[in-house]
Amino acid sequence: MRALLAIAVGAFFLALALGFIPLGEDEPPAVMMWIIGMMGGLTLLAGISHLRLRMKRRAAYAGGRERKGTVRLFSPLGEDSDTAVLLFANSHSEWMLTVDLGSLKTVRDQLSQGVPAKAYLGEDDRIYGLDIGTVKALPISPGVPYEGKLRSRMEWAERKKTEWAAKAAKE
User: Fold this and answer.
1) DSSP characters for 100-127?
2) What is the chain's Cα-based Rg?
3) Which spans in the chain are helix H?
């Protein structure tokens, strides 16, 4: 539903910027119309991307490969966080994905220790569906394999973060 709403709002803003919807005698400046057009285009693309993710999620639940493993928080949650970055791991692979915290209210406190879960993979070996116990998590992004360049960059960022914290503590 959210995807269709985003597509409708984006299409409305694009039509407004292109002049298909008349605003009367008081036309906004061209710069404002460009901004409205770019905002509409981005909203339209976000809606299409969201719809595509939901369709892949449905296909993964219907006929995707199922993997059992554990899921835990990848990074600590802030007080006003709406999303969480989770790390799903089984015996031979790890995936990182972003989920909506609203769908994880019952298991939110247990995620820091690790919780048994089932992941549903699509044809491209990405996680599109995640069941944590009886709760179906709502992914915001597909789960990508956490290996190679992604892993090395995340480890580098963590090292730099601790180095800068140590340097700031000395000063």
Assistant:
1) EGGGGTTTGGGTTT-EEEEEEE-TTS-E
2) 21
3) 2-18, 30-63, 148-170
For residue 60, what are its two tokens? Answer: 């993964």
Alpha carbon dihedral 64, 65, 71, 74, in 10-degree steps, equals -70
Phi, psi (5° rounding) for residue 122?
Answer: -85, -170
CA separation (Å) from 80 to 84, 102, 146, 160?
Answer: 11, 12, 26, 25
pLDDT tens sequence across 3-30: 899 999 999 999 999 989 887 778 888 8
Give per-residue pLDDT as tens, 48-97: 999 999 999 999 999 889 999 999 888 777 777 788 889 998 888 889 99
Q: How far apart are CA 56 and CA 65, in angstroms?
A: 13
